[in-house]
Queue: 2 jobs
Job 1
Amino acid sequence: MRNCPKSRTSNRSTFTWALASSWFSHRYWVIHIFYRLYTRPDRQPLERARSKNVDLKRPQYYFSRSCCNTDIDELTEKSGLPEELKKLITLEFASHRKHVQVIKHDAMEKIRRHVLDTASMETRITAITVSIRNQQRHIEEKRTDKTARVLLKENIDKRKALLKRLRAADYKRFEWLLEKLDLVYHATPNPIIPITKKDSLIKLTQIYCDNIRKQQLDDYKKELEKEKVLFDEEKKQTLKWIEEEEKVLGLKQ
Protein backbone atom coordinates (compact mmCIF):
# COMPACT_ATOMS: atom_id res chain seq x y z
CA MET A 1 0.00 0.00 0.00
CA ARG A 2 1.05 3.53 -0.68
CA ASN A 3 1.99 5.54 2.38
CA CYS A 4 -0.43 8.37 3.04
CA PRO A 5 1.12 11.82 3.42
CA LYS A 6 1.07 13.31 6.90
CA SER A 7 -1.60 15.88 7.56
CA ARG A 8 -0.90 19.46 8.56
CA THR A 9 -2.40 18.90 12.00
CA SER A 10 0.07 16.11 12.77
CA ASN A 11 2.99 18.31 11.65
CA ARG A 12 1.70 21.15 13.78
CA SER A 13 1.30 18.89 16.83
CA THR A 14 4.82 17.51 16.47
CA PHE A 15 6.18 21.06 16.14
CA THR A 16 4.35 22.26 19.26
CA TRP A 17 5.47 19.17 21.18
CA ALA A 18 9.09 19.76 20.18
CA LEU A 19 8.83 23.43 21.17
CA ALA A 20 7.26 22.57 24.53
CA SER A 21 9.83 19.86 25.25
CA SER A 22 12.70 22.25 24.47
CA TRP A 23 11.16 24.90 26.74
CA PHE A 24 10.69 22.42 29.59
CA SER A 25 14.23 21.08 29.20
CA HIS A 26 15.62 24.63 29.26
CA ARG A 27 13.56 25.42 32.36
CA TYR A 28 14.71 22.19 34.01
CA TRP A 29 18.39 23.00 33.48
CA VAL A 30 17.92 26.55 34.76
CA ILE A 31 16.24 25.26 37.93
CA HIS A 32 18.96 22.63 38.30
CA ILE A 33 21.67 25.31 38.10
CA PHE A 34 19.94 27.54 40.64
CA TYR A 35 19.32 24.54 42.89
CA ARG A 36 23.07 24.10 43.23
CA LEU A 37 23.66 27.83 43.79
CA TYR A 38 20.80 28.23 46.28
CA THR A 39 21.70 29.24 49.84
CA ARG A 40 19.03 29.53 52.48
CA PRO A 41 18.69 33.11 53.86
CA ASP A 42 19.31 33.83 57.51
CA ARG A 43 16.35 33.45 59.82
CA GLN A 44 14.86 36.79 60.74
CA PRO A 45 13.59 37.12 64.33
CA LEU A 46 9.84 37.65 64.47
CA GLU A 47 8.16 40.17 66.70
CA ARG A 48 7.29 38.85 70.09
CA ALA A 49 3.64 38.07 70.60
CA ARG A 50 1.93 40.94 72.32
CA SER A 51 0.72 40.29 75.82
CA LYS A 52 -2.97 39.49 76.06
CA ASN A 53 -3.22 41.26 79.40
CA VAL A 54 -2.42 44.70 78.01
CA ASP A 55 -5.52 46.18 79.64
CA LEU A 56 -4.28 45.19 83.09
CA LYS A 57 -1.41 47.67 82.66
CA ARG A 58 -3.87 50.48 81.95
CA PRO A 59 -5.69 52.51 84.65
CA GLN A 60 -8.51 50.37 86.03
CA TYR A 61 -12.11 51.50 86.53
CA TYR A 62 -13.44 51.55 90.08
CA PHE A 63 -16.72 52.94 91.37
CA SER A 64 -16.37 56.33 93.07
CA ARG A 65 -19.75 56.54 94.79
CA SER A 66 -21.29 54.74 97.71
CA CYS A 67 -24.83 54.17 96.42
CA CYS A 68 -26.28 52.73 93.22
CA ASN A 69 -28.68 55.63 92.77
CA THR A 70 -28.43 59.21 94.03
CA ASP A 71 -32.20 59.35 94.74
CA ILE A 72 -31.98 56.38 97.12
CA ASP A 73 -29.00 58.00 98.82
CA GLU A 74 -31.01 61.18 99.49
CA LEU A 75 -33.97 59.18 100.85
CA THR A 76 -31.79 57.25 103.29
CA GLU A 77 -30.32 60.49 104.63
CA LYS A 78 -33.77 62.05 105.17
CA SER A 79 -35.36 58.93 106.68
CA GLY A 80 -33.03 58.89 109.67
CA LEU A 81 -32.25 55.16 109.46
CA PRO A 82 -29.37 53.76 111.51
CA GLU A 83 -25.96 53.45 109.90
CA GLU A 84 -26.11 49.63 109.75
CA LEU A 85 -29.23 49.72 107.55
CA LYS A 86 -27.81 52.47 105.36
CA LYS A 87 -24.74 50.36 104.59
CA LEU A 88 -26.93 47.53 103.28
CA ILE A 89 -28.12 49.80 100.44
CA THR A 90 -24.64 50.97 99.48
CA LEU A 91 -22.36 49.36 96.89
CA GLU A 92 -20.16 47.99 99.64
CA PHE A 93 -22.64 45.14 100.14
CA ALA A 94 -23.73 44.90 96.50
CA SER A 95 -22.76 42.05 94.19
CA HIS A 96 -19.77 42.15 91.89
CA ARG A 97 -22.06 42.29 88.85
CA LYS A 98 -23.68 45.42 90.27
CA HIS A 99 -20.25 46.97 90.72
CA VAL A 100 -19.44 46.36 87.04
CA GLN A 101 -22.80 47.81 85.96
CA VAL A 102 -22.17 51.00 87.93
CA ILE A 103 -18.64 51.32 86.54
CA LYS A 104 -19.96 50.86 82.98
CA HIS A 105 -22.63 53.50 83.56
CA ASP A 106 -20.11 56.02 84.93
CA ALA A 107 -17.64 55.37 82.10
CA MET A 108 -20.29 55.61 79.39
CA GLU A 109 -21.51 58.96 80.75
CA LYS A 110 -18.16 60.52 79.75
CA ILE A 111 -18.23 59.00 76.25
CA ARG A 112 -21.85 58.99 75.07
CA ARG A 113 -23.13 61.68 72.71
CA HIS A 114 -26.50 62.17 74.40
CA VAL A 115 -28.45 60.85 77.39
CA LEU A 116 -30.03 57.91 75.54
CA ASP A 117 -26.88 56.90 73.66
CA THR A 118 -26.29 53.21 74.38
CA ALA A 119 -25.80 51.74 70.89
CA SER A 120 -23.13 53.92 69.28
CA MET A 121 -19.74 52.41 68.59
CA GLU A 122 -18.03 54.57 71.23
CA THR A 123 -20.34 53.50 74.07
CA ARG A 124 -20.20 49.85 73.04
CA ILE A 125 -16.39 49.95 72.98
CA THR A 126 -16.42 51.57 76.43
CA ALA A 127 -18.72 48.90 77.87
CA ILE A 128 -16.65 46.09 76.34
CA THR A 129 -13.43 47.65 77.67
CA VAL A 130 -14.82 47.68 81.22
CA SER A 131 -15.85 44.03 80.84
CA ILE A 132 -12.42 43.07 79.46
CA ARG A 133 -10.52 44.66 82.33
CA ASN A 134 -12.85 43.10 84.88
CA GLN A 135 -12.49 39.65 83.25
CA GLN A 136 -8.71 39.96 83.13
CA ARG A 137 -8.57 40.72 86.84
CA HIS A 138 -10.80 37.70 87.44
CA ILE A 139 -8.54 35.42 85.34
CA GLU A 140 -5.45 36.64 87.23
CA GLU A 141 -7.07 35.41 90.44
CA LYS A 142 -8.61 32.21 89.02
CA ARG A 143 -6.46 30.89 86.22
CA THR A 144 -8.42 27.64 85.80
CA ASP A 145 -11.64 29.38 84.72
CA LYS A 146 -11.79 28.39 81.04
CA THR A 147 -15.22 29.90 80.45
CA ALA A 148 -13.95 33.33 81.46
CA ARG A 149 -11.02 32.95 79.06
CA VAL A 150 -13.36 32.18 76.17
CA LEU A 151 -15.59 35.17 77.01
CA LEU A 152 -12.52 37.38 77.31
CA LYS A 153 -11.28 36.37 73.87
CA GLU A 154 -14.73 37.01 72.36
CA ASN A 155 -14.88 40.47 73.93
CA ILE A 156 -11.38 41.34 72.69
CA ASP A 157 -12.33 40.30 69.15
CA LYS A 158 -15.56 42.33 69.34
CA ARG A 159 -13.74 45.42 70.55
CA LYS A 160 -11.08 45.07 67.85
CA ALA A 161 -13.77 44.81 65.15
CA LEU A 162 -15.59 47.88 66.50
CA LEU A 163 -12.34 49.87 66.70
CA LYS A 164 -11.58 48.93 63.11
CA ARG A 165 -15.01 50.13 61.98
CA LEU A 166 -14.73 53.36 63.96
CA ARG A 167 -11.25 53.99 62.57
CA ALA A 168 -12.57 53.69 59.02
CA ALA A 169 -15.68 55.79 59.70
CA ASP A 170 -14.39 58.68 61.87
CA TYR A 171 -10.66 58.81 62.54
CA LYS A 172 -10.78 61.90 64.80
CA ARG A 173 -13.41 60.28 67.00
CA PHE A 174 -11.31 57.11 67.00
CA GLU A 175 -8.21 58.95 68.29
CA TRP A 176 -10.28 60.81 70.88
CA LEU A 177 -11.73 57.53 72.18
CA LEU A 178 -8.28 55.90 72.41
CA GLU A 179 -7.08 58.86 74.46
CA LYS A 180 -10.12 58.75 76.74
CA LEU A 181 -9.97 55.00 77.39
CA ASP A 182 -6.14 54.85 77.32
CA LEU A 183 -6.12 52.17 74.63
CA VAL A 184 -3.46 51.20 72.09
CA TYR A 185 -4.73 49.98 68.73
CA HIS A 186 -2.53 47.59 66.74
CA ALA A 187 -3.60 47.21 63.13
CA THR A 188 -3.53 43.72 61.66
CA PRO A 189 -0.07 43.14 60.13
CA ASN A 190 0.53 41.81 56.65
CA PRO A 191 0.59 38.01 56.42
CA ILE A 192 4.05 36.47 56.78
CA ILE A 193 4.88 34.44 53.67
CA PRO A 194 7.23 31.55 54.53
CA ILE A 195 10.45 31.23 52.51
CA THR A 196 10.68 27.87 50.76
CA LYS A 197 13.25 26.47 48.39
CA LYS A 198 10.71 25.70 45.67
CA ASP A 199 9.27 29.23 45.58
CA SER A 200 12.75 30.76 45.62
CA LEU A 201 13.85 28.63 42.67
CA ILE A 202 10.72 29.54 40.72
CA LYS A 203 11.36 33.25 41.35
CA LEU A 204 15.01 32.98 40.35
CA THR A 205 14.06 31.12 37.17
CA GLN A 206 11.47 33.75 36.33
CA ILE A 207 14.00 36.55 36.87
CA TYR A 208 16.54 34.73 34.69
CA CYS A 209 14.01 34.24 31.87
CA ASP A 210 12.87 37.88 32.14
CA ASN A 211 16.46 39.07 31.81
CA ILE A 212 16.97 36.92 28.70
CA ARG A 213 13.75 38.25 27.19
CA LYS A 214 14.74 41.84 27.98
CA GLN A 215 18.19 41.36 26.46
CA GLN A 216 16.72 39.92 23.27
CA LEU A 217 14.29 42.83 22.99
CA ASP A 218 17.11 45.34 23.47
CA ASP A 219 19.17 43.66 20.76
CA TYR A 220 16.19 43.70 18.41
CA LYS A 221 15.62 47.41 19.09
CA LYS A 222 19.25 48.15 18.23
CA GLU A 223 18.88 46.27 14.95
CA LEU A 224 15.76 48.25 14.11
CA GLU A 225 17.55 51.52 14.86
CA LYS A 226 20.34 50.53 12.47
CA GLU A 227 17.83 49.61 9.77
CA LYS A 228 16.02 52.90 10.33
CA VAL A 229 18.96 54.85 8.88
CA LEU A 230 18.93 52.74 5.71
CA PHE A 231 15.16 53.03 5.51
CA ASP A 232 15.34 56.85 5.71
CA GLU A 233 17.91 56.99 2.90
CA GLU A 234 15.83 54.68 0.73
CA LYS A 235 12.74 56.75 1.47
CA LYS A 236 14.49 59.97 0.39
CA GLN A 237 15.63 58.40 -2.88
CA THR A 238 12.14 57.05 -3.57
CA LEU A 239 10.49 60.42 -2.92
CA LYS A 240 13.05 62.15 -5.12
CA TRP A 241 12.39 59.70 -7.97
CA ILE A 242 8.61 60.22 -7.61
CA GLU A 243 9.02 64.00 -7.86
CA GLU A 244 11.16 63.67 -11.00
CA GLU A 245 8.62 61.33 -12.63
CA GLU A 246 5.78 63.74 -11.83
CA LYS A 247 7.70 66.60 -13.46
CA VAL A 248 8.42 64.52 -16.57
CA LEU A 249 4.77 63.50 -16.92
CA GLY A 250 3.58 67.03 -16.26
CA LEU A 251 1.60 66.10 -13.20
CA LYS A 252 3.38 68.64 -11.04
CA GLN A 253 4.21 72.20 -11.99
Job 2
Amino acid sequence: SLLAPAEMSSPSLKTGAYILIGVGALTMLMGFLGCLGAVNEIRCLLGLYFTCLMMILITQVAAGLVIYFQAAKLKVELSNIVRSLIKNYDPSNDDERNLQDAWDYVQRQIACCGWDGAQDWESNEILINKSMTEYPCSCSNSTKDLEADSGFCNLDDADNSTVTYADWPVHEQGCIDGVENWLKDNLGIILGVCTGVAVIELLGMILSISLCKNIHSEDYTKVPKS
Protein backbone atom coordinates (compact mmCIF):
# COMPACT_ATOMS: atom_id res chain seq x y z
CA SER A 1 0.00 0.00 0.00
CA LEU A 2 2.81 2.40 0.81
CA LEU A 3 4.35 1.79 -2.61
CA ALA A 4 1.11 2.55 -4.45
CA PRO A 5 1.54 6.36 -4.37
CA ALA A 6 5.22 6.00 -5.19
CA GLU A 7 4.60 3.70 -8.15
CA MET A 8 2.14 6.20 -9.62
CA SER A 9 4.62 9.09 -9.28
CA SER A 10 8.08 7.60 -9.72
CA PRO A 11 9.22 6.34 -13.15
CA SER A 12 11.90 4.15 -11.58
CA LEU A 13 9.44 2.43 -9.26
CA LYS A 14 6.98 2.00 -12.13
CA THR A 15 9.73 0.29 -14.09
CA GLY A 16 10.48 -1.92 -11.08
CA ALA A 17 6.81 -2.89 -10.83
CA TYR A 18 6.71 -3.84 -14.52
CA ILE A 19 9.87 -5.91 -14.08
CA LEU A 20 8.28 -7.80 -11.18
CA ILE A 21 5.17 -8.46 -13.29
CA GLY A 22 7.39 -9.75 -16.09
CA VAL A 23 9.31 -12.02 -13.71
CA GLY A 24 6.03 -13.40 -12.35
CA ALA A 25 4.74 -14.14 -15.84
CA LEU A 26 8.06 -15.77 -16.78
CA THR A 27 7.93 -17.91 -13.63
CA MET A 28 4.45 -19.19 -14.53
CA LEU A 29 5.57 -19.98 -18.08
CA MET A 30 8.67 -21.78 -16.86
CA GLY A 31 6.59 -23.78 -14.38
CA PHE A 32 4.37 -24.97 -17.22
CA LEU A 33 7.37 -25.86 -19.39
CA GLY A 34 9.01 -27.65 -16.45
CA CYS A 35 5.91 -29.79 -15.89
CA LEU A 36 5.68 -30.51 -19.60
CA GLY A 37 9.33 -31.51 -19.72
CA ALA A 38 9.03 -33.76 -16.66
CA VAL A 39 5.87 -35.54 -17.84
CA ASN A 40 7.14 -36.11 -21.38
CA GLU A 41 10.81 -36.53 -20.35
CA ILE A 42 12.03 -33.75 -22.63
CA ARG A 43 15.59 -32.88 -21.63
CA CYS A 44 15.60 -29.59 -23.52
CA LEU A 45 12.62 -28.22 -21.57
CA LEU A 46 14.05 -29.41 -18.25
CA GLY A 47 17.35 -27.74 -19.02
CA LEU A 48 15.54 -24.54 -19.98
CA TYR A 49 13.53 -24.72 -16.74
CA PHE A 50 16.73 -25.11 -14.69
CA THR A 51 18.41 -22.19 -16.46
CA CYS A 52 15.45 -19.86 -15.99
CA LEU A 53 15.09 -20.77 -12.31
CA MET A 54 18.77 -20.04 -11.78
CA MET A 55 18.45 -16.67 -13.54
CA ILE A 56 15.38 -15.74 -11.47
CA LEU A 57 17.15 -16.67 -8.23
CA ILE A 58 20.23 -14.63 -9.16
CA THR A 59 17.99 -11.68 -10.12
CA GLN A 60 16.15 -11.84 -6.79
CA VAL A 61 19.41 -11.88 -4.83
CA ALA A 62 20.76 -8.98 -6.90
CA ALA A 63 17.53 -7.00 -6.40
CA GLY A 64 17.71 -7.56 -2.65
CA LEU A 65 21.30 -6.31 -2.55
CA VAL A 66 20.44 -3.24 -4.63
CA ILE A 67 17.51 -2.37 -2.34
CA TYR A 68 19.69 -2.85 0.74
CA PHE A 69 22.53 -0.64 -0.50
CA GLN A 70 20.20 1.95 -2.10
CA ALA A 71 17.83 2.17 0.89
CA ALA A 72 18.83 5.75 1.74
CA LYS A 73 18.28 6.94 -1.84
CA LEU A 74 14.92 5.15 -2.03
CA LYS A 75 13.85 6.72 1.27
CA VAL A 76 14.65 10.22 -0.03
CA GLU A 77 12.75 9.57 -3.27
CA LEU A 78 9.70 8.30 -1.40
CA SER A 79 9.88 11.27 0.97
CA ASN A 80 9.80 13.75 -1.93
CA ILE A 81 6.90 11.94 -3.60
CA VAL A 82 4.78 11.80 -0.44
CA ARG A 83 5.47 15.42 0.53
CA SER A 84 4.45 16.56 -2.96
CA LEU A 85 1.29 14.45 -2.70
CA ILE A 86 0.40 15.96 0.69
CA LYS A 87 1.04 19.51 -0.51
CA ASN A 88 -1.25 19.11 -3.54
CA TYR A 89 -3.86 16.86 -1.86
CA ASP A 90 -7.33 17.94 -3.01
CA PRO A 91 -10.43 15.77 -2.39
CA SER A 92 -12.20 17.42 -5.34
CA ASN A 93 -9.46 16.47 -7.81
CA ASP A 94 -10.77 13.36 -9.57
CA ASP A 95 -7.62 13.04 -11.70
CA GLU A 96 -5.55 12.22 -8.61
CA ARG A 97 -8.27 10.31 -6.75
CA ASN A 98 -6.61 6.89 -6.92
CA LEU A 99 -3.30 8.28 -5.72
CA GLN A 100 -4.90 10.19 -2.84
CA ASP A 101 -7.08 7.23 -1.82
CA ALA A 102 -3.96 5.06 -1.68
CA TRP A 103 -2.27 7.49 0.70
CA ASP A 104 -5.42 7.78 2.85
CA TYR A 105 -5.44 3.98 3.10
CA VAL A 106 -1.80 3.98 4.23
CA GLN A 107 -2.48 6.54 6.97
CA ARG A 108 -5.52 4.64 8.24
CA GLN A 109 -3.88 1.22 8.25
CA ILE A 110 -0.60 2.28 9.86
CA ALA A 111 -2.31 4.81 12.18
CA CYS A 112 0.05 7.58 11.12
CA CYS A 113 -0.11 11.11 9.75
CA GLY A 114 2.14 12.66 7.11
CA TRP A 115 5.59 11.37 6.23
CA ASP A 116 7.52 12.64 9.26
CA GLY A 117 4.43 13.71 11.21
CA ALA A 118 1.24 15.77 11.08
CA GLN A 119 3.31 18.92 10.52
CA ASP A 120 3.77 17.84 6.88
CA TRP A 121 0.10 18.65 6.27
CA GLU A 122 0.68 22.32 7.15
CA SER A 123 2.07 22.71 3.62
CA ASN A 124 -1.26 21.69 2.06
CA GLU A 125 -2.71 24.60 0.07
CA ILE A 126 -6.34 23.92 1.01
CA LEU A 127 -5.57 23.72 4.74
CA ILE A 128 -3.53 26.93 4.53
CA ASN A 129 -6.46 28.73 2.90
CA LYS A 130 -8.74 27.48 5.68
CA SER A 131 -6.31 28.56 8.42
CA MET A 132 -5.75 24.97 9.58
CA THR A 133 -9.34 24.69 10.86
CA GLU A 134 -9.63 21.39 9.00
CA TYR A 135 -7.43 18.29 9.11
CA PRO A 136 -7.06 15.08 7.06
CA CYS A 137 -9.75 12.60 8.11
CA SER A 138 -7.51 9.59 7.44
CA CYS A 139 -5.12 10.88 10.14
CA SER A 140 -7.81 11.14 12.79
CA ASN A 141 -7.52 9.28 16.08
CA SER A 142 -11.08 10.25 17.04
CA THR A 143 -13.89 7.69 16.87
CA LYS A 144 -16.32 10.25 15.44
CA ASP A 145 -14.26 10.45 12.23
CA LEU A 146 -14.19 6.72 11.54
CA GLU A 147 -16.89 6.96 8.88
CA ALA A 148 -15.01 9.69 6.97
CA ASP A 149 -11.95 7.86 5.68
CA SER A 150 -10.75 10.49 3.20
CA GLY A 151 -10.82 14.22 2.56
CA PHE A 152 -10.79 16.84 5.32
CA CYS A 153 -12.72 17.01 8.60
CA ASN A 154 -13.71 20.17 10.47
CA LEU A 155 -11.96 20.99 13.71
CA ASP A 156 -14.37 21.61 16.59
CA ASP A 157 -14.17 24.97 18.42
CA ALA A 158 -11.37 26.24 16.22
CA ASP A 159 -9.84 29.68 16.70
CA ASN A 160 -8.66 30.77 13.26
CA SER A 161 -5.82 32.87 14.62
CA THR A 162 -4.07 30.22 16.69
CA VAL A 163 -4.78 26.82 15.10
CA THR A 164 -1.78 24.60 14.25
CA TYR A 165 -1.35 20.90 13.52
CA ALA A 166 -0.81 20.38 17.27
CA ASP A 167 -4.51 21.15 17.80
CA TRP A 168 -5.69 18.43 15.43
CA PRO A 169 -7.05 15.13 16.84
CA VAL A 170 -4.65 13.08 14.73
CA HIS A 171 -1.98 10.43 15.17
CA GLU A 172 1.40 11.84 16.17
CA GLN A 173 3.43 9.12 14.48
CA GLY A 174 4.76 9.80 10.98
CA CYS A 175 4.19 7.10 8.37
CA ILE A 176 7.92 6.53 7.82
CA ASP A 177 8.26 5.62 11.51
CA GLY A 178 5.20 3.39 11.27
CA VAL A 179 6.62 1.54 8.27
CA GLU A 180 10.02 1.09 9.92
CA ASN A 181 8.37 -0.24 13.08
CA TRP A 182 6.25 -2.64 11.03
CA LEU A 183 9.32 -3.92 9.20
CA LYS A 184 11.15 -4.45 12.50
CA ASP A 185 8.18 -6.30 14.02
CA ASN A 186 7.75 -8.53 10.96
CA LEU A 187 11.39 -8.94 9.96
CA GLY A 188 11.40 -12.61 10.95
CA ILE A 189 8.33 -13.35 8.81
CA ILE A 190 9.76 -11.47 5.82
CA LEU A 191 13.10 -13.27 6.04
CA GLY A 192 11.31 -16.59 6.50
CA VAL A 193 9.19 -16.08 3.38
CA CYS A 194 12.21 -15.01 1.31
CA THR A 195 14.21 -18.00 2.55
CA GLY A 196 11.32 -20.36 1.83
CA VAL A 197 10.98 -19.07 -1.74
CA ALA A 198 14.74 -19.42 -2.30
CA VAL A 199 14.73 -22.99 -0.93
CA ILE A 200 11.81 -23.97 -3.18
CA GLU A 201 13.61 -22.53 -6.20
CA LEU A 202 16.81 -24.39 -5.27
CA LEU A 203 14.87 -27.65 -4.88
CA GLY A 204 13.28 -27.08 -8.28
CA MET A 205 16.72 -26.56 -9.81
CA ILE A 206 18.14 -29.69 -8.16
CA LEU A 207 15.19 -31.89 -9.14
CA SER A 208 15.07 -30.61 -12.71
CA ILE A 209 18.79 -31.14 -13.36
CA SER A 210 18.68 -34.58 -11.70
CA LEU A 211 15.73 -35.65 -13.83
CA CYS A 212 17.40 -34.20 -16.90
CA LYS A 213 20.53 -36.30 -16.29
CA ASN A 214 18.49 -39.47 -15.73
CA ILE A 215 16.63 -39.15 -19.01
CA HIS A 216 18.61 -41.08 -21.61
CA SER A 217 18.43 -40.26 -25.26
CA GLU A 218 17.43 -43.05 -27.60
CA ASP A 219 20.40 -44.88 -29.09
CA TYR A 220 19.33 -45.20 -32.72
CA THR A 221 22.44 -47.27 -33.59
CA LYS A 222 20.81 -50.23 -31.83
CA VAL A 223 17.61 -50.07 -33.84
CA PRO A 224 17.34 -53.21 -36.04
CA LYS A 225 17.74 -52.48 -39.70
CA SER A 226 14.97 -53.65 -41.98
